[in-house]
Prior knowledge:
Blueprint: H1 10-22, H2 32-40, E1 51-55, H3 60-73, E2 78-81, E3 93-95, E4 98-99, H4 102-114, H5 123-137, E5 142-146, E6 164-167, H6 175-178, H7 182-189, E7 199-201, H8 206-219, E8 223-225, H9 243-257, H10 266-275, E9 283-284, E10 296-298, H11 304-317, E11 320-324, H12 332-339, E12 343-348, H13 359-366, E13 369-370, H14 374-378, E14 385-388, H15 391-400
Helix pairs in contact: 1-4, 2-5, 3-9, 3-10, 4-5, 7-8, 11-12
Amino acid sequence: MVDFARSANPAVQAELSYLERLSPGIDILGLERISLLLDALGRPQDRLPPVFHVAGTNGKGSTCAFLRAGLEAAGYRVHAFTSPHLVRFNERIRIAGTLVDDTELARLLREVRQVSADIGPSFFEATTAAAFLAFSRHQADACVIEVGLGGRLDATNILARPLVCGIANIGVDHERFLGDRIEGIAAEKAGIAKLGVPLVLLAQPPSIESAISRIAAKNGAPLLLEDRDWAFDDTLQPTMAGAFQVRNANLAWAMLQAQDRFQIDRAAFDKGLARANWPARFQKMKDGLLTQGHETWIDGAHNEAAAAALASLLAERGAMQIVLGILANKDAAAIIGQLSPFARSLTFVPVPDHEHHDPERLVAEFGGIAAAGLEEALAPLPAPRLIAGSLYLAGEALARNGEVPD
């Protein structure tokens, strides 16, 4: 699925549009282009603060949020690069705790654009370079970097020696690029392993653990495995809902304990957990133009594993009126199969500006009704209501409701 962006700032939009035209038009993996691009920019990746590098199919973004929150609660300044954004592209690049502003973002993208013509980077590669350029120019104590897709050939894996790496939950996703064998996907994720750098892993099915262990050994990375090398702590209680978030918080805490560069005690980490926020992960929306006073939630349940995690929450909280928009490269049957048992009603909508499963076809196959957009879908629905199926749809909902992540 092509990764592009839009901005209300004309200068930023001009640069984003150029990078969009320059991109090959599909997500492409490999380290050759990002290497050439960063070389042309003076190798900013060599001037970053110590890096926490996080991969996984689901939960890596939340893990990054918990890492950042814990470090900041202990008094450290943190850069962060995550994806995708929900409303504004600026959400991807956080400089010492603050989202990059439009003036600096336009300048960064322009610098990348000026050296890109003969390289032809993908959009993600170009924006990764912009993030690293920003981080190399601003003082901070640490960097938290989220893998975009896979691991071994992801643009962020140009980082030669992170401080510590972590892998969150692994499932089947992005089959076009990573294959449909879970062991192969796990091996690709484990490709972030580096010589002498601790690799922290949540407990996984044995076949996944074996695949990751092989890559860690091959790359010379010490593997720290849950239940073998570190113990799960169910007293960690993030404010973000769901047992899966407790698992992500445990991964973040284990990563922090796997290094000795930063001193973070449990009290500081607990304080960080209480503050940590990662939008569109079972988030209750504010009263606004879209919600109109009705209890409405959003969740980026964009694949089967994420939908299963959401279903576990709904099993505890009760069924909702569910509005789904599903990207074309996702397994609609798997997502709907997880969520439909907890749906008082199902309404399918398009995902604006992205290839998506046709709502009418989904109705023909799974029942429910189709709507042209969020407003039409939500108008007749009583509370409680839930918008899910795509992070891009969640971002659309937030934008229309006037909620811009900061």
